[in-house]
Write a structure and sequence with these properties.
Layout (H helix, E strand, L loop, with lengths): L1 H9 L15 E6 L5 E5 L1 H7 L3 H4 L4 H4 L2 H12 L6 E7 L7 E12 L2 E10 L1 H19 L3 E6 L4 E4 L1 H7 L3 H4 L14 H12 L4 E8 L5 E12 L5 E10 L1 H15 L9 H18 L2 E9 L2 H8 L1 H16 L7 E6 L2 E9 L3 H13 L4 E3 L2 E3 L3 E8 L6 H17 L5 E3 L6 H16 L5 E10 L5 E12 L3 E3 L1 H11 L2 H19 L8 E5 L2 H5 L3 H12 L6 E6 H6 L2 H13 L2 E7 L7 H5 L4 E4 L10 H16 L3 E4 L5 H10 L3 E2 L10 H8 L3
Parallel strand pairs: 16-17, 19-21, 21-22, 22-23, 23-24, 24-25, 25-26
Antiparallel strand pairs: 1-2, 1-5, 3-4, 4-5, 6-7, 6-10, 8-9, 9-10, 11-13, 11-16, 12-13, 14-15, 18-19, 18-26, 19-20
Helix pairs in contact: 12-13, 16-17, 18-20, 20-22
The structure holds ligand C2E and magnesium ion (MG) (2 copies).
């Protein structure tokens, strides 16, 4: 202590030590003539070293500073002139992590004496922030998503490499421009105004825009633009994050077409025809007009198909479709319901008798023989006609009645038109009969389950089975689930039948497990109606417990429409099933709602490509769609299963596109339990 006083006396007034702390750094004064001995130290410096100030005074650098710092002081003391030096060291501390300290050494000549000022700056936080910023910048630079930053006026200040890759505009070309360089001209000024108003008011804007690349190509972007604020909350920039969704849009468009049009005739299919009918009915109801609904069945189509073959049959359907289109106005609809059945919707009829004249035109159009592949073929048509609102007010009633009327035309000797008369509805009678028999079918043990094998596309190894319901009735014979499931859905019986199938399938697989690969699973089809009932997840859990089957061995097959609805209770049920470990599959993919976006949102494991995609292997459009579904499915981490494989070529094609598993008649038809076990354990 006394020494230090003496020393300060030698060097003049004692410095006010508070001065040492004004820079916010630790400051030490060192005597270079005494090998850098500490002459004075501020409170911060002492704190940084974790020592009392008195413990530091008069010490040599090697006693108090980290080695590189002490070395630098030593070097400085040995020199005549002293350049400033900066040294960074890690300081071990008692804190969890070491601190990084930046030391700066300034040598000074004060008259004859030489002193040094040593500053110690704790840069731990700054360095950590630097690192974080560097990582963030790297992530943005390498992001697979375009990032654009503009100033508040919309002038581009930054684009990442992905932007350049997607748009074709280089960094230097984009900077200083506005994002309108990618404008396609297809977005309305109104839409831009909304976008701008949203972000200027401080909210995030999200949407999809059709934009244009530098080379002129159009592309779709999913865009989200958010304001960036400074510390005071003022908006200083905007950041846009953009994903090129052109491929997805393209797939969706094609799926939408596939879901709504018949491949063979290019006419609206059942789904779209009925949709058009429903719209026409709503409009006619408002405008107090009539709608004509005609059901058309070709008279000897089956004979042509059976005797001349499918090529002729297909060609005949195409030409017949063209003739039907020739009989109607542009605002009318001709659709193909399936097989040789067509539907005509005549909307906005002021006079219902007009429908009769269209029916006459149709009969007339079929009088002339068809020339198919050099053969002259005569095929007449039978037409059943109903009129809204007299013959029914709802689409399904009108269709059913038109169908009944068409059968009356057949009974009357074909090649004619009949209108609907209530009371003669054979279809309705049959349906009533089915309904009453179905209500007792479970109790009589008429409902049973068959199993269709699913195998690995590459190895041929069994991956599982799909459980399919069957109804065998002494009076009706075998009834297809396509006929009785909709009935059961209408009457609510589906809950009981579905539960029976679920429990049977779980128990069956549990019994088989010793003979099957350990992860073999069983797929159970479930109606939307079953899933919509609260407590469905409990029913599944009980079925699994009762059977002693692990949840991952059960795959619930659901239809696309279920996802499209996004009903809250359904979403909850699906999440509960997944949480339990049960697998979920989208059945008949590509026929319904046809949007891939929901697959991202729902916890699905598997997509099953509908068998309608398999039939035309070799057809470019369908093949590329299958390929696209497989690619998209895999990119979402899903298993893709192909359904309805009937030929070796189809199997080969699915192998080639990387589809994971397949099922279909080519491998096996659905089998009764014993036969399935034989199939599964075949050598
Ligand atoms: P799905 O779930 O798509 O089942 C596949 C259907 O395709 C089955 O018809 C199967 O026999 C048939 N199939 C399999 N391989 C081929 C093939 O190579 N070529 C052809 N042409 N068809 C093949 P199935 O058994 O008549 O069932 C029809 C539909 O009924 C099922 O379609 C499913 O949606 C529904 N269904 C069946 N069982 C149940 C059930 O227990 N509950 C519910 N809710 N629906 C069921
Ligand atoms: Mg299925
Ligand atoms: Mg299916």
């Amino acid at each position: 202590m006394s020494i230090s006083h003496e020393r300060t006396r030698v060097r003049g007034e004692a410095p006010d030590l508070r001065l040492f702390d004004v820079t916010g750094k630790g400051v030490f004064a060192l005597d270079l003539d005494e090998d850098g001995r500490v002459i004075a130290v501020g409170a911060m410096g002492a704190a940084l070293l974790g020592k009392d100030r008195d413990d530091l005074l008069d010490r040599l650098p090697a006693e108090v500073f980290p080695v590189p710092v002490a070395q630098a002081v030593h070097d400085c003391a040995a020199q005549a002139t002293f350049p400033s030096r900066v040294i960074q060291t890690l300081m071990p501390t008692r804190l969890v992590s070491d601190r990084t300290v930046e030391w700066t050494l300034h040598g000074l000549a004060a008259g004859a004496e030489r002193v040094a000022l040593l500053e110690a700056d704790d840069v731990t936080v700054r360095k950590r922030n630097d690192n974080r910023l560097r990582n963030m910048a790297r992530a943005v630079e390498q992001s697979p998503i375009s990032v654009v930053i503009t100033d508040v006026k919309g002038m581009i200040e930054y684009v990442n490499p992905r932007f350049t890759q997607v748009t074709g505009y280089g960094y230097d070309e984009a900077i200083g421009m506005t994002p309108s360089i990618v404008k396609s001209g297809f977005t309305s000024p109104q839409q831009y105004r909304e976008l701008w108003e949203t972000i200027v008011s401080g909210r995030e804007w999200r949407g999809e825009l059709l934009n244009r690349r530098k080379n002129g190509d159009l592309f779709w972007e999913h865009i989200s633009i958010s304001p960036i604020r400074d510390d005071t909350g003022a908006i200083v920039r905007f950041v846009a994050v953009k994903e090129d969704v052109t491929m997805r849009k393209e797939y969706e468009k094609r799926l939408l077409y596939q879901a709504h049009y018949d491949d063979l005739t290019k006419l609206p299919n059942r789904l779209l025809s009925i949709d058009r009918l429903t719209q026409a009915l709503a409009r006619a109801d408002r405008n107090r007009e009539h709608v004509g609904v005609a059901f058309i069945d070709l008279d000897n189509f089956k004979k042509v198909n059976d005797t001349l073959g499918h090529t002729y049959g297909d060609d005949l359907l195409r030409v017949a479709a063209r003739r039907l289109v020739g009989c109607i106005r542009a605002s009318d609809t001709v659709g193909r319901l399936g097989g040789d059945e067509f539907l005509i919707v005549l909307p906005d009829l002021h006079d219902p008798a007009h429908a009769l004249s269209v029916a006459d035109k149709i009969l007339e159009a079929f009088q002339e023989p068809f020339l198919i592949l050099g053969h002259s073929i005569t095929t007449t048509a039978s037409v059943g006609l109903t009129i809204f609102p007299g013959d029914g007010r709802e689409a399904n009633i009108l269709l059913r009645n038109a169908d009944a009327a068409m059968y009356r035309a057949k009974d009357a000797g074909r090649n004619c038109c009949r209108t609907f008369h209530a009371g003669l509805n054979a279809i309705a009678m049959h349906r009533l009969r089915l309904e009453s028999l179905l209500s007792g079918a479970l109790d009589r043990g008429e409902i049973f389950v068959v199993y269709q094998p699913q195998v690995d596309t590459r190895t041929g190894r069994l991956v599982g089975a799909e459980a399919l319901a069957r109804w065998r009735n002494p009076e009706l014979g075998m009834v297809s689930p396509l006929d009785f499931v909709p009935l059961a859905e209408d009457s609510g019986l589906i809950e009981l039948i579905g539960r029976h199938v679920l429990e049977t399938a779980c128990q069956q697989l549990a019994r088989w497990r010793d003979h099957l690969p350990p992860d073999a699973r069983v797929g159970v089809n479930v109606s939307s109606r079953q899933v919509a009932v609260p407590g469905f997840a409990d029913i599944v859990e009980q079925a699994l417990n009762k059977a002693g089957l692990p949840p991952h061995c059960l795959e619930i097959e659901l239809t696309e429409s279920l996802f499209a609805l996004r009903v809250a209770t359904v979403v909850e049920t699906l999440n509960a099933l997944r949480a339990m470990g049960v697998r979920l599959a989208v059945d008949d993919f590509g026929t319904g709602y046809s949007s891939l976006s929901y697959l991202r949102e729902f916890p699905v494991n598997t997509v099953k490509i509908d068998r309608s995609f398999m039939i035309p292997v070799g057809d470019e459009a369908a093949d590329s769609l299958v390929r696209a579904i497989v690619t998209m499915g895999h990119s979402l981490g899903l298993q893709v299963v192909g359904e309805g494989i009937e030929t070796a070529q189809q199997l080969e094609f699915l192998q080639q596109v990387g589809c994971d598993a397949v099922q279909g008649y080519f491998l096996s038809k659905p089998l009764p339990a014993e036969a399935f076990l034989r199939f599964a354990t075949r050598a």
